[in-house]
Structure formats: C-alpha cells, structure tokens
Amino acid sequence: MPTALITGITGQDGSYLTELLISKGYTVHGIVRRSSITARGRLDQLFHQEDVYNKRLFLHYADLSDVTTIRRILLKSTPDELYHLAGQSHVGASFEIPETTCEFTAMGTLRLLEILRDLDKQPRFVHISSSEIFGRPDQSPQNETTPMRPVTPYGVAKAFATQMVTLYRESFGLFACNAICYNHESPRRGESFVTRKITRAAAAISMGLEKTLSLGSLDGRRDWGYAPEYVEAMWRMLQQPAADDFVVATGTAHSVKDFLAASFDAVGLDWEDFVTQDPRYMRPSEGTHLVGDPGRASKSLQWTAETRLPRLAEIMVQSDLDALLASRQRADS
Ligand code: GDP
C-alpha cells in the first residue's frame, strides 16, 4: 500500500486529504508545527480510531524552515507521494506579516524542492497553489497558461513557489505538479475566512447569540468550491502518467453578497438587517475577476466541482448550527 507525506496536515485540506488517503488504504505521515496550542481538532475523528492513529497515521514535528528535520522525516517515511499544503494561507494577514508569508509559502516550497532533488527515491509531489497568483488578470476565466499578476504578498509568494515547482519539473525532471486551487470552503474552514465568518454568524444570529456581523468589502467575487472535492483532485493529479499543472475551480464566480444571501436564507433571515462594514477588514489591494477554467482537470483528471452555492453555504450553516446547539447543550447540562 502506498505511503503519503502531508505538510499542513492539521488544516482544512490536510484533514480531508488524510481521510481520503486513509480510506484508500494509504499510510499517512503528517508534518506538524510545534506550538503551545495543539490545533488538531480537525483530525480528532482519526485519532480516536484505534487501527489508524500511530498505525497508519503518524505525525512528526517540524517547521518548514527546518531543513534537516524535514529531510530526516522524508528519509524515514520514504513516501510515494508528497502533498505540500502548508503555508501562511490568509491573504488579509499577508499584508501584516509579509516576511513570514514569504518565508513559509515561498521559501518553504523551494527548500522542499531542494531536498527532493537530492533524494534517491523521489516521491511524486504536488504543491497546493492558489488563484491569488493571477491577481488582476487580463483574461477571465483563468487557465494554466494565464500570466501571473499577483497583487497581494500571499499571491506574490505563491507565484514564486508555483514557478519554482514548474522549474524543478522541467529542469530536474521531478514529478512535480501545481494544483492551482480557487477558494474552497467547508465546515472546517478557519473562522477568519469570509465564508466561515458568515455562516458562523448566520447560525449565531438565528439562535439569538449575536446581533450583527462586521465585514470588509462586499464587492469581491470568488470562485467558491467545496474542499472535500478539491483534495480528490489533488490525489488524482499524482495518479497521472506525467506531472502537470491544473486549475481546480468550479468555473463560476459569486460575490460576497451572494454568499451572505445564501447563508442567511438558510436560516430564514435577510442579511441586510445584520451586516455592518468595518474598515479594519478592508485590504490595501485585492484580486479581481478570479474565476477558474477547470477544463484541463475535467479532461485529464475526470474531475468536476459538484457542490456550489447555495448548497455550499447550506452545508456550512447547518454544521455551525449543530456545533452551537451542541455547545449550548453542554453548557446547560
Ligand atoms: P481570500 O482572500 O480569497 O483567500 O478569501 P477570504 O475568505 O479571506 O476573502 C474573500 C473575500 O471576502 C475578499 O474579497 C475579502 O476582501 C472579502 N471580505 C469582506 N469582509 C471580510 C472579512 O471580514 N474577512 C475576510 N477574510 N474577508 C472579507
């Protein structure tokens, strides 16, 4: 049975990918950053399965800047596939911490590629890139050949990493792919991303726990898909005869207002009665017209995004309602 190594295993995508690979019979190794808070809630379900944790799922501590440790983990785990998901992934935060963003997202990827270059047994490699590399593109929808014009520190760091992956594939013959993922959401999305912030607030407001929701610009449009489907595309890329880059997207853009309407509709409320705008959440600049053309993924990987708005918002609101109800019951008992 194959072995996979995942950087960023504790994140939204890492947890769904781990579940997918475990269900396919893989042994999974994950790299975790040591911190004083254990942020492993998304993997909880797997930890509690006796035949999985420390039998087919192993965690290792390392920072992406810790080359020696990462090399040791690679030499010990000898993975067939390496999924590189880790990085500072919040676009808004990247304006506050551009150096950290570049350190992890850009240099972290280059360091991994350098380690792979020296290995005798090189795993198949996929870097989870982002639509932010396109920034303000000339063409819409974007595909794998659209020029990169990033307009955020995160986008610039991702563009560097993406181009390095292509360079190492072409120059050193690595089986290295870029999954150019558009926004993908789920109940496991971090609460500071706009979708989850909205669905959590819609649930809390409908239960009378909160009164308003404070947001930044409502003009942005995003191509929002469902994260569990996106990790399936990542896996399919590594099963191809040759490495390539793939846009992973739904092909349809919606505005933040559309997401608000779908989420508040799910609880029978009108978002305009509750949303206020706060300059704190506005960004110095942002990408526009980001919508992906998933044609290559559809043709070569036989992959299409199934779950879209409003269904996506309904799934997330329902999960937030369930979680708030459960915590209220715990508090009452
Ligand atoms: P990303 O920036 O595309 O990775 O995803 P986000 O979920 O962080 O933001 C999506 C869009 O929502 C962007 O256009 C943001 O400017 C907009 N937005 C509006 N209000 C907020 C907010 O309060 N938080 C975040 N994260 N985004 C917001």
TrEMBL record:
Gene Ontology molecular function: GDP-mannose 4,6-dehydratase activity; NADP+ binding
Keyword Lyase present in the record's keywords: the answer is yes
Q: Name one GO biological process term.
A: 'de novo' GDP-L-fucose biosynthetic process
Name the EC number(s): 4.2.1.47
Q: Could you tell me which residue ranges the NAD(P)-binding domain spans?
A: 5-316
Q: Which reaction(s) are listed as its catalytic activity?
A: GDP-alpha-D-mannose = GDP-4-dehydro-alpha-D-rhamnose + H2O
Per the entry, which co-factors are needed?
NADP(+)
Sorted keywords for this record are: Lyase, NADP
For the keyword 4Fe-4S, the answer is: no
Which HAMAP family does the UniProt entry name for this protein? GDP_Man_dehydratase
The protein here is known as: GDP-mannose 4,6-dehydratase
Species this chain originates from: Stieleria neptunia
Q: Give the source lineage, highest ranks first.
A: Bacteria, Pseudomonadati, Planctomycetota, Planctomycetia, Pirellulales
Gene designation: gmd_2
